[in-house]
What does this fold into?
Amino acid sequence: MSLYARVRDLPVVIDGARLERLELPVSPEFARVTTVVQVEGAGHEGIGEDVTYEADEATEFQQAGPPNLTGEWTIHSLSEALGAMDLFPTPPAWPPSRGYRRWAFESAALDLALRQAGEPLWRVLGIDPKPVEFVISTGLGEPPDPGRVLAWAEAAPGIGFKVDATPSWTRDVARALAEGATIEAVDLKGHYSGTIVDPGADPSLYAMVAEEFPDAWLEDPRVDDRTRIALAGAEDRVTWDAPLHEAADIDAFPIRPRAVNVKPSRVGSLERLLELYDHIREHGLGAYGGGQYELGPGRGQIQYLASLFHPDAPNDTSPVEYHSPPRTGLPTSPLAPAPSATGFRWHPATAGDPTG
It folds into this structure.
């Protein structure tokens, strides 16, 4: 039986929905804003989180309010209805945001359906949760400062890192990272053309990263004739993130991966997500979880999925406390399994999580 077949016919009764704003000042220039989606019915509530990055789009959504989802549904019929709706009052600046918002409603509906059924997700899927390994994900700023990573390595010894490489990296920067921290993955961000995080495609950077981090995953290169030469010999460490929206995408990648970065919010629908996990298992691929700077329940939900599908991987699912400056005393990797008794949420409260 497919994974989706285990949940598609779950009934869910919705009496109403509401939105809640979460905000975290990150710097004087940037505040991260997300939206908690709460759907209510039959004396229960389900929660999800919209991780759309544009703060003005989040504010507009919160002011407009949720769509009317009142009624009796199944998980599948509600998903189909959501897929036919435009959940944005005005078109989003970044097309993947449509998936982010849809996932917020689909994850909230799944949580509600499971709570109404009195079941936890892991039992319905037939997969026992396991301890979750996680890494700390960070950029180095401009000019690149390896001290950002080294400070975390000192505060949280034993935890690995996923780092964002930029063309301004020097070999000295790379070696400082390699010598002072465990670098599990390097994000080359080759598929963000036209955005503020587009670093271009620098063959010399790719070659240096592949050489200085011989055991790290190399995520999202922009593959052309020049970068393919730069990555020669390291092809089995190439992974994909931004271009991955469904299982069929894997066959279209210019370099066939041994592992992929799965971000549920980027996939958007529960059906496509569970089909992707089925595909990964059937084809013997590895996977690791990707974060979207969640501030609330969405972070726990990606930890939950990591515990079921790729617990031993370098999951970018660190607790939200790691969004703050380096300090000691934070949860360590691996996270103990902590699914709630029913529903689709990770039980322990984390900073910024209003659900407890």
Q: What stands out?
A: The chain has two domains: 4-121, 125-323. The longest helix spans residues 97-117. The mean pLDDT is 94.
